[in-house]
Structures are given as structure tokens and as C-alpha cells.
């Protein structure tokens, strides 16, 4: 049997700091003021690409920060393990970036988008590994279901 995965306060705080830095970089990269001096049709396409990828990237980081805040609350005793398991799951990354939109972004912005996707994937692996563990206390509904299933005779095929 594998040893239980512990998400320590040190790991959470390190990831939280990294998430805050990445979030600030995302905010700065996707602010459209003082940008884009192209022909009108090209400008519109670039603005749509910036808006679309900015929304995806910002949402990805919001989910990451929310997941980390839930784990911080658990480690500080503000959430139970049951609450964390039930409500603290990392939201999926959603739709992937559109390659046509990425091609319109500056290389630095494309690199930042990729970095946030890798960060989210790291958190997802950590969350999935932690969730595969059996919770410390089985909930009342699960105990009742196990009792019912244990006492119910299996139906025979006719």
C-alpha cells in the first residue's frame, strides 16, 4: 500500500506564492491598454485573441488560487477534511487555448499561458493523488449504503 499523500503547509504556501506571482503576471500581460497599433481588421483579431486567452488564463489561475485557499483553510483548521474533499476539488482547466489565438499573441504572453497551464496541471495531479486516498472518516451516507448493500440478498437470474 502506498503511503498517504500529505499536502503540507509548506507545499501549499510555496504553491500559493507561485500562484500569486503568476496571477499578477497574467493581469499585466492581458491588460490591453497601450497595445496593438495594427490595421483595423488585424487589430480586432488580436483584441479577440487577447480577450479570449486572457479570460481562459485568468479563470485557470482563479481556480488554482481558490484550490490553494481551500487547502490553506483546511491546514489552519477552518475546514474539515470532509468539507475540503466535498467542496475543495480543483475545477477543470476548461477549454484549451485556441492555436489561432495563441499565434496572434506575443511570444512572452504565449509562454505565460503555457506556464499557467503547467501550474494548473501540477495542482490537478496533486489533487487527484490526494483524493485517491480513503478519507479518514467515512460519511454517514456511505456507512448506511454499505450496511444496506451488505444485508440485501443478491437477485438471481431467472
Structural account:
The protein has a single domain, classed as Helicase, Ruva Protein, domain 3 (Orthogonal Bundle). The model has no long low-confidence stretch (mean pLDDT 83). It is elongated and about 70 Å long. It has six helices and no strands. By secondary structure, the protein is mainly alpha-helical. The longest helix has 36 residues, at 40-75.
Concise synopsis of the structure shown:
This protein is an all-alpha fold and 158 residues long. It is 68% helix and 0% strand.
Radius of gyration: 22 Å
Overall strand count: 0
The number of domains: 1
Please tally the helical runs, counting DSSP H or I stretches of 4 or more residues. 6
* Mean pLDDT over the full residue set: 83
Quote the beta fraction: under 5%
| Terminal CA distance | 41 Å
Largest sheet, in brief, is: none
CATH architecture: Orthogonal Bundle
Portion in helices: 55-70%
Order of helices and strands: HHHHHH
**CATH topology-level fold name:** Helicase, Ruva Protein, domain 3
Which term fits the overall shape? Answer: elongated
Structural class from helices and strands?
mainly alpha
The top-level CATH class is Mainly Alpha
Low-confidence stretches: none
Q: Say which CATH homologous superfamily is assigned.
A: Protein of unknown function DUF1465
Amino acid at each position: 500500500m502506498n503511503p498517504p499523500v500529505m499536502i503540507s503547509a509548506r507545499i501549499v504556501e510555496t504553491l500559493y506564492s507561485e500562484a500569486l506571482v503568476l496571477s499578477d503576471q497574467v493581469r499585466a500581460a492581458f491588460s490591453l491598454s497601450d497595445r496593438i497599433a495594427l490595421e483595423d481588421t488585424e487589430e480586432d483579431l488580436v483584441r479577440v485573441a487577447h480577450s479570449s486567452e486572457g479570460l481562459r488564463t485568468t479563470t485557470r489561475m482563479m481556480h488554482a488560487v481558490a484550490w490553494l485557499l481551500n487547502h490553506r483553510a483546511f491546514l489552519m483548521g477552518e475546514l474539515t477534511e470532509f468539507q475540503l474533499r466535498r467542496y475543495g476539488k480543483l475545477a477543470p482547466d476548461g477549454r484549451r487555448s485556441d492555436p489561432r489565438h495563441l499565434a496572434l499573441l506575443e511570444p512572452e504572453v504565449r509562454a505565460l499561458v503555457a506556464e499557467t497551464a503547467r501550474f494548473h496541471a501540477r495542482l490537478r495531479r496533486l489533487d487527484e493523488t490526494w483524493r485517491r486516498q480513503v478519507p479518514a472518516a467515512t460519511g454517514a451516507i456511505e456507512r448506511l449504503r454499505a450496511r444496506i448493500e451488505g444485508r440485501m440478498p443478491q437477485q438471481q437470474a431467472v
